[in-house]
Design brief:
Number of strands: 7
Number of domains: 1
Strand content: over 45%
Distance between the termini: 19 Å
Helix content: under 10%
Radius of gyration: 13 Å
Order of helices and strands: EEEEEEE
Largest sheet: 5 strands, antiparallel
């Protein structure tokens, strides 16, 4: 999707894990791009990349990509 300067990608796995990736091209007042990743797990619980207590690592083709909490 797209709205208000944000591009949104929603990916759902066969296991019903939903990854919502929001990318913005509009920096905030500190000139930082406030990208955001949210996960919804099959049991309905959520994980948020902006929660400093949550560590999210994306694994694809046997490569790992830890997401910084600044996303």
């Amino acid at each position: 999707g797209f709205g208000m300067g944000v591009t949104e990608y929603i990916i759902t796995s066969p296991e019903n894990v939903m990854m919502n990736l929001n990318c913005t091209g509009n920096p905030d007042d500190q000139n930082i791009l406030q990208h955001h990743v949210m996960l919804t797990l099959p049991d309905g619980s959520d994980a948020d990349s902006q929660d400093e207590k949550t560590a999210i690592t994306v694994v694809t083709d046997d490569q790992t990509f830890p997401l910084p909490s600044s996303l």
